[in-house]
Amino acid sequence: MLQAEAVVDLDAIRANTAYLAGLAAEQSAATMAVVKADGYGHGAVPSARAALAGGAGWLGVATVGEALELRTAGIDAPILSWLNGPGTDVGPAVRASVDLGVPSVRLLEEAITAAKAADRTARLHLKVDTGLGRSGATPADWPDLLVAAAKAQAEGTAEVIGVWSHFACADEPGHPSIAAQLAVFREALEVADRHGVHPQIRHLANSAATLTLPEAHFDLVRAGVSIYGLSPNPAQVPADALRPAMTLRARVLIAKRVPAGHGVSYGHTYHTAAPTTLALVPLGYGDGIPRHASSAGPVLLAGKRRTIAGRVCMDQFVLDVGDDPVSEGDQAILFGPGDQGEPTADEWADVAGTINYEIVTRIGARVPRTYVGA
Ligand SMILES: *Cc1c(COP(=O)(O)O)cnc(C)c1O
Prior knowledge:
The chain is of the alpha/beta class.
């Protein structure tokens, strides 16, 4: 193995996707694998291929740059790109048959202008804000967006493929906003119908709703974190059928004996209690290891769970392994599926005060991804 690496299990991504696509299929819904942010840190192209092999019919990304990376790799599945702001050149995406999510009249008009210049029909998914308070037209602004879309459809410059929205609290089953957002979404679909906008594909569900809310599956579910084997909320949304795809590991760079009372790492926030062995692990916040995990992050080394001694630095941190026989080159596992007793991304999220999404997504470009499985 390399000095440090994120091992990505493509069989796990494929199997997780197959499981989620099975849930969606029970509601006659298709499955979009969300591979934004470099596939939540797992690598967009390999993750996309594994998800397609597992039965995803669509891919979802934020930016057109992310969509074009998939097209350049030769992936020809339907792709939706949903976060392109004013002035973004969406022309290359339109030419590459990438669908665009549009939340406002202005962005709809920019998509149409690009489509006209490319002599293509823009494939649009109109986004309604059903309560998240993020992107999407408010119910008050929704009719204007529909009027503009219907006009473009009549002119042949755009085709409304989808109408969609996004949940705020689907990871808290029973949260009252869930039913409220569903009701607003259904109403928005009726309003669209009255404006002559008849989308083929209505979509609302993220991972949490895919796992817990069949009535929100509509025609397509957008599964992100779950295809990588993580639960959107481990405390409330059990996802035992899923297998975490990423294992982050590194080799001990130096192991050395030090006396009692030795300060460790910047600020000397940790001191050795007795003569002991310190093991240096070459991963730090420059690689996405949260500095908030200083004196807290769990690591498996030499068959035991250890806790980071002192501060996480930019490129490295230290473990105090006592008198255990640890040598240079030994493998330290920060997180993985848990099979070997290693911590999970969920545990790292807990100690760093964040969510598993952020733990895997922020693993930096300096850490090579190595792929196992088909
Ligand atoms: C990121 C994202 C998703 C996927 O969410 P998960 O919770 O990871 O499943 C779905 N839809 C939109 C609009 C997103 O931004």
